[in-house]
C-alpha cells in the first residue's frame, strides 16, 4: 500500500508540473488526472477504514473471549482447590481407618491368644472352670466385637479408597481442562496482539493516505485558481 501511495504522489506531482507548463486544455487534462488520483485515494481510504473497523471488532471479540476464559479458569481453579482439600481429608481418613484396622487386628490376635490360654487353663484346673468359662464367654464376645469392628473398618476403608479414586480422577480431568483453557487463552492473546499490530499498520497507511489527499486537494485548488488569475491579467 505504501508503494501505491508513492506512485500516486508521483503521478500527482507529474500532473502538477505538466499543468504549470501548459495553458488552456493542458490545465483541463491536469484536473482530470488529479480527479482520477483523488478517486483512487478516496477508495483506498475507504478500504483501509473498513479494515480498521473489522480489526476493532476482532479486538473486542478477543477481549470478551479472554474475559470469559479467565472466569472459567478461575472457576476451575476453585473447583480444583476444593477437590484437593477433599482428597487430602479422604487421605487422612483412610490413614486413620487403616491404623484402626491394624489395631483391631492386633486386638483380635491378642484375644484369640487369651482364648487359647484360657482353654488350656480349663484343662489344667477344674477348680477354676466356672471362672474360666465366664472369662471365655467374655473373651469370645470380645472376639466377635473385634471381628464386627474389623468388618466395619474394612468397609469404611473400601469406601474411602473409592472416594480417593474419584477425587483423583476429577482432579486429573480438571488439570486437563485447565491446560486446554490455558491454550485457548494464549491463542486469543496472540490473536489480539496480531490484530493490534495489523491495526497500527493500517492506521499509519490511513494517515499517509489522508496527508496525500490533503496535498492533492491543495494543489487542485491552486490549479482551479490559475484561470482566474490569467483572466485578470488579460483584462
Describe this structure as you would to a colleague.
Helices cover 96% and strands 0% of the residues. It is an all-alpha fold. The protein has a single domain (2-234), classed as Helix Hairpins. The radius of gyration is 46 Å and the shape is rod-shaped. The model is unreliable at 1-10 (pLDDT under 50).
SSE topology:
Blueprint: H1 2-21, H2 25-124, H3 129-234
Helix pairs in contact: 1-2, 1-3, 2-3
Give the ordered list of helices and strands: HHH
Count of DSSP strands: 0
Structural class: mainly alpha
**CATH architecture field:** Orthogonal Bundle
Distance between the termini: 47 Å
**Radius of gyration in whole Å, from Cα?**
46 Å
How many structural domains in the coordinates?
A: 1
Low-confidence stretches: 1-10
Largest sheet composition:
none
Helix content: over 70%
Strand fraction band? under 5%
Shape: rod-shaped
CATH topology: Helix Hairpins
Number of helices: 3
Under CATH at level 1, the class stands as Mainly Alpha
Mean pLDDT: 78
